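To whoever is on call:

I kicked off a structure prediction for a single chain this morning and the downstream step that reads the tokens threw a length-mismatch warning. I double-checked the sequence; it's 122 residues and nothing unusual in it as far as I can see. Pasting both halves so you can look.
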Amino acid sequence: MKKGSVADGLVFHAGFPNAGEDQAEMRMSLDAMVFRHRLSTYLWKLEQAIPELGWQPGSVVAVDRALEPKQGDLVVAVADEDFVLRKLHKGKLYDMSGDNDQSETVSIWGVITHVLMEYRSA
């Protein structure tokens, strides 16, 4: 009789249970978490730090173009033909210092969903 099988209405258990058996179906996948919309998600490596958010140079942000921006989202926007990081608040874009974006042409390119930072190099 196999461990955990049901025979005559009784469950057969033998020995100490393996703690890993409870987690067998719940595997964590970084790929599944970050790439919800695989064809419209991009990874960008930051060249400069963004101290207001605690992001270091070399941090990687995941930008999803399929998402509709919501209140409080961090977004990548195109301002005067440059990619910039902005925060959406009450329909307006603000830079990380809290100032309203005064650029002439601003359009939202995508929503930042994740950031990956290396705290310790090998």
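Update from on-call: the warning came from a stale cache, not from the record. Cleared it. Sanity check on the structure: The first helix runs from residue 30 to 34.
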